[in-house]
Amino acid sequence: MKENIHPNYQPVVFQDLSSDFAFLTRSTMSSKETVKWEDGNEYPVIKLDITSHSHPFYTGKQKTLDVGGRVDKFRQRYGKK
């Protein structure tokens, strides 16, 4: 493997801003902001708007909107009669 061509792969905390959820993993991303983790060490923190903890698809709160009865129109047109 060539020297000095690979990015720095380090522990990083990803924090969900919409909920109080954070997880520690390894990443090549870095940040000037740090946070003290449960183990007492400080790690760079990357702030995210949405993670699997707050996304409606993963939380089971996703709703399907039927605007103007499009599903019913489709079923009438192409459904079994």
Can you offer a commentary on this structure?
Belongs to the bacterial ribosomal protein bL31 family. Type B subfamily. This is Large ribosomal subunit protein bL31B. Keywords: Ribonucleoprotein, Ribosomal protein. This protein is α+β, with helices and mostly antiparallel strands. The protein has one domain. Helix content is 16%, strand content 30%. It is built from 2 helices and 4 strands; from the N terminus they run ββββαα. It has helices spanning 56-59, 70-78, and strands at residues 10-16, 21-27, 34-36, 42-48. It is elongated and about 65 Å long. 1% of the residues are buried. The mean pLDDT is 84.
Quick summary:
This protein is of the alpha+beta class. It has helices at residues 56-59, 70-78; strands at residues 10-16, 21-27, 34-36, 42-48.
* Strand coverage percent: 25-35%
Number of domains: 1
Query: Main β-sheet, in a few words?
Result: 4 strands, mixed
SSE order, as H and E?
EEEEHH
Low-confidence stretches: none
Class computed from helices, strands and strand pairing: alpha+beta
Q: How many DSSP helices?
A: 2
Terminal CA distance reads 64 Å
Q: What's the mean pLDDT score?
A: 84
Q: What topology, given as strand order, has the largest sheet?
A: 2-1-4-3
The 3D shape can be described as elongated
Fraction of residues in helix: 10-25%
Q: If you compute it from the alpha carbons, what radius of gyration comes out, rounded to the nearest whole angstrom? A: 22 Å
> How many beta-strand runs?
4
Features:
81 residues; alpha+beta; 4-stranded mixed beta sheet; 2 helices; 16% helix; 30% strand; Large ribosomal subunit protein bL31B; Ribosomal_bL31
